[in-house]
Amino acid sequence: xxxxxxxxxxxxxxxxxxxxxxxxxxxxxxxxxxxxxxxxxxxxxxxxxxxxxxxxxxxxxxxxxxxxxxxxxxxxxxxxxxxxxxxxxxxxxxxxxxxxxxxxxxxxxxxxxxxxxxxxxxxxxxxxxxxxxxxxxxxxxxxxxxxxxxxxxxxxxxxxxxxxxxxxxxxxxxxxxxxxxxxxxxxxxxxxxxxxxxxxxxxxxxxxxxxxxxxxxxxxxxxxxxxxxxxxxxxxxxxxxxxxxxxxxxxxxxxxxxxxxxxxxxxxxxxxxxxxxxxxxxxxxxxxxxxxxxxxxxxxxxxxxxxxxxxxxxxxxxxxxxxxxxxxxxxxxxxxxxxxxxxxxxxxxxxxxxxxxxxxxxxxxxxxx
Length: 369
Description:
Layout: E1 4-5, H1 15-23, H2 43-60, E2 66-71, H3 74-86, E3 94-99, H4 102-111, E4 116-122, E5 127-129, E6 132-134, E7 155-158, E8 160-161, E9 166-167, E10 178-181, E11 198-202, E12 213-218, H5 235-240, H6 250-266, H7 268-289, E13 293-294, E14 306-311, H8 317-326, E15 329-330, E16 341-344, H9 351-368
Parallel strand pairs: 1-15, 3-4, 3-7, 7-10, 10-11
Antiparallel strand pairs: 2-12, 5-6, 8-9, 11-12, 13-14, 14-16
Helix pairs in contact: 1-6, 2-6, 3-4, 6-7, 7-9
């Protein structure tokens, strides 16, 4: 039995993608071997990698002056690799960070090991708006309030905070290169590459399985790595060797390629954007109409990917999770740092799954309200 898997990541994958991977597991395209057994430098595997890159470029309309890299270490690994590669780009050793939740804070803290890091804006305090006080990390600092140093090598933002359920994609056009962590909402909406100079994401939420980070980086930002940066993590080396400087996570790249094909069959990123809007609007609409459940994120910054919610009577949390799991609705427990519940509704989650959750929540409220 397949369950509705609301995990924040690794997340659910489309059944047809899993079935294709299963069918090709022991014999990929008549080669008599699995992708996992294949030399990463073989003609067959290089074709898999090249096609994955081409499809990702097409899905996100990545400009020709951007390199597409499949990088090891996941998105969190890039927290250190980004400053190692970029912070000396202009010789300043400076980088600015916008803090909007747990992941941007982690990124900022890691970068402090490598240079002069400053907070350009933060939602880490309460904010009065619309006659209400919004708690820290439940909103996104507006760009008009950012204090970005003109000599910063880059500005880092996280467009979707998985734990807090905060999303912001309206990045302004700045003179300083913008580095965007798009791990939780990549391929769910377009990326404006005229405003974003680097976009990176772990693959395990919207683009396949864990093991790689996808990176789109303007080519003129390559070649500025610090001397202490390991050769295998120097983005210029990775780009020059087509993500094959050393043996990559070959199966993770293959799975990402299958996901890209699936997204193309769904109608591409524009179709997914509309589908994700319908899913999130249905769930937020239900939460807003209920006095039993609540969502505490500012409405202007609610994530379409990660929907945290609380039961007003938190003594019912354990019972809610137990009965939800029994009903085939799994991985709804909120992150340990914030508690409550969280429904992650990435691209692979259909509206049917979201409706099944709403139906269960309606019935649970009827029995326990």
